[in-house]
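Team,

Forwarding the record for the chain on the shared tracking sheet. I've put the sequence and predicted structure together so nobody has to dig through attachments.
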Amino acid sequence: MNRSDLVAVLADRAEVPRKDADAVLAAFAETVGEIVAKGDEKVTIPGFLTFERTHRAARTARNPQTGEPLEIPAGFSAKVSAGSKLKEAAKGK
């Protein structure tokens, strides 16, 4: 399912125009992105998903073509965790 398919389903279920459903989805994505970028709190939708920023330590890797060691600096990444209701849905229950 791509974004336009998701917007169409949301609009049908919420009985709102597609333009409004798309605006809400865009606002949700922007808001979650801003909160995760700050890194001081996580966004939780109980039973569904949790979004948070995590710290990645510096590490040494190897170039697969030359075998030469590379230093990868410390940084941040995003972590998304499935909630209990989403996990149950994935199991088909």
